[in-house]
Amino acid sequence: MSIIEKIVGALPTVRDRARTVLDFAMSTKGKVILALAAAVIALGYAHHRGVESQEPRIAQLSKELGEVKKELGEAKLKAAMVVQQPAAPSPKVQSWLEEQARVNEQLDLKVKTYEKELAKRPAGNGDRLTDAESRRLLDIR
Q: Three-class SS of residue 54?
């Protein structure tokens, strides 16, 4: 069977299928479906054209967004680099700090004095403390 015979044999089948499609298109159900398909295609095209016409605006907004992000990044970097100065303490806190410094100096003086006394003693008893020495250590607080 040659190719021409195949084509000639398929023509009635194609013609029958084309008539079936035309009959469907002329029926009420076919007209409704074709109208809906045409409406969907028209909406898709209109949407595409609308988005396409907004491309310059979208590009401009993207550029502005990039600039704002860059400025924000620079501002964050500057904020991270700024060393914040601690606020000056209130007079009440300042006086308390000075009092604590004086107490600390007095305690340091007591400890250093006691260290000097222990250094002058002979090391006969090793690391043991007498009861009097233990009481003196407790009084350092």
A: coil
| Separation between Cα atoms, residue 57 and residue 53, nearest integer Å | 9
* Dist CA 45 CA 47 (whole Å): 5
Is residue 104 within 8 Å of 112, Cβ to Cβ? no
CA-to-CA distance for 80 and 73, rounded, in angstroms?
11
**Alpha carbons 140 and 133: distance in angstroms, whole number:** 11
- Separation in Å, CA 89 to CA 18, 93, 94, 99, 102: 95, 6, 6, 14, 18
- List b or e across 71-90, with b for residues whose CB sees 16 or more CB atoms inside 10 angstroms: eeeeeeeeeeeeeeeeeeee
Query: 24-40 pLDDT, tens per residue?
Result: 889 999 999 999 999 99
For 123, counting Cβ atoms within 10 Å of its Cβ (0-12 exposed, 13-18 middle, 19+ buried), the class is exposed
Taking the model in full, what pTM does it have?
0.33
